[in-house]
Amino acid sequence: MRKPDGKIVLLGDMNVGKTSLLQRYMERRFPDTVSTVGGAFYLKQWRSFNISIWDTAGREQFHGLGSLYCRGAAAIILTYDVNHPQSLFELEDRFLGLTETANNDCLFAIVGNKVDLTSERDTEGGEKEGQASGKVGGCVSTKVPKQVQPEDAVALYKKILKYKMLDEREMPAAEQMCFETSAKTGYNVDLLFETLFDLVVPMITRQRAEESDQTVDIASCKTPKQTRSGCCA
Ligand SMILES: Nc1nc2c(ncn2[C@@H]2O[C@H](COP(=O)(O)OP(=O)(O)OP(=O)(O)O)[C@@H](O)[C@H]2O)c(=O)[nH]1
Ligand SMILES: [Mg+2]
């Protein structure tokens, strides 16, 4: 198996729907899930690149493994449940600290899942429909008020950039990186993953170019002429 060219990691509290989001994207279905133990990954071919997407366990007892999974990540998906404000707070309190092992230029997406529970109509059958409107700032009419507002996710995104000392002007805008999704209906799920793939691919290309710049081409290195100077000539 070819080594993955890039790595994306899903983090977030238990029960927010990380496994369901990944299965919805990779397998196009919404099966019953069991709480994840440790972690697991899928490989996705995107253009000519191989990207691994890691699902992690949200349960406290596996917390220590999180930073291991984040090692070398090009992007991290911080997932919360739009119906549980605590799951958003946990991202900052418990999960952000695990991302120290990710790449320095790692991208962050903030994803509010289970948006179908807050609306009866607008988030259904969403694999194609209404993908743009589900982004933060779009207009999704909800019957049951959402417990976490998109602005809260945007605020967290900006806070993360500050915490990571990343220049807001050089990073993708919050509006591009904060999503509301439903693994159940598929709403915005393709948009989430494919936005990240499109952002990660140029990073991989850039990284490769930098690596090849640093590679010394031994064949082209001229061996210094042997001189006959010195006492043993
Ligand atoms: N209504 C609704 N339910 C969802 C959605 N996503 C996940 N669920 C349900 O939420 C529960 C937890 O989903 P999982 O995907 O296992 O959650 P997880 O984040 O992987 O949880 P851990 O593996 O314990 O960290 C399951 O019963 C899912 O069916 C969604 O978008 N809408
Ligand atoms: Mg899981």
General form: globular
Whole-Å distance between the termini? 54 Å
Query: What share of the residues lie within helices?
Result: 25-40%
Care to count the β-strands? 6
- Placed side by side, the strands forming the largest sheet appear as 2-3-1-4-5-6
Please outline the major beta sheet: 6 strands, mixed
Q: Helix/strand/pairing class, anyone?
A: alpha/beta
- Report the β-strand fraction as a percent range: 15-25%
Count of helical segments?
Answer: 6
> Spans with pLDDT under 50 lasting ≥5 residues?
127-134, 225-233
Compressed to H and E, one letter per element, the order equals: EHEEHEHEHHEH
GO cellular component, one term: phagocytic vesicle membrane
Family: Belongs to the small GTPase superfamily. Rab family.
Cofactor: Mg(2+)
Membrane topology: Lipid-anchor
Topology:
Blueprint: E1 6-12, H1 18-27, E2 39-46, E3 49-56, H2 66-70, E4 75-81, H3 85-95, E5 107-113, H4 150-163, H5 174-177, E6 178-180, H6 189-214
Parallel strand pairs: 1-3, 1-4, 4-5, 5-6
Antiparallel strand pairs: 2-3
The protein binds guanosine-5'-triphosphate and magnesium ion.
Magnesium ion binds at residues 18-19, 33, 35-36, 55.
Main location: membrane
Family: Belongs to the small GTPase superfamily. Rab family.
Organism: Mus spicilegus (Mound-building mouse)
Commentary on this structure:
The chain has 233 residues and is α/β, with parallel strands linked by helices. The chain has a 6-stranded mixed sheet with strand order 2-3-1-4-5-6, sandwiched between helices. It is 30% helix and 17% strand. It has helices at 18-27, 66-70, 85-95, 150-163, 174-177, 189-214, and strands spanning 6-12, 39-46, 49-56, 75-81, 107-113, 178-180. It contains 6 helices and 6 strands. The protein is globular, with a radius of gyration of 22 Å. Helix 3 links the parallel strand 4 and strand 5. 39% of the residues are buried. Guanosine-5'-triphosphate binds next to helix 1. Its EC number is 3.6.5.2. GO terms for molecular function: G protein activity; GTP binding; metal ion binding. Keywords: Cytoplasmic vesicle, Golgi apparatus, GTP-binding, Hydrolase, Lipoprotein, Magnesium, Membrane, Metal-binding, Nucleotide-binding, Prenylation, Protein transport, Transport.
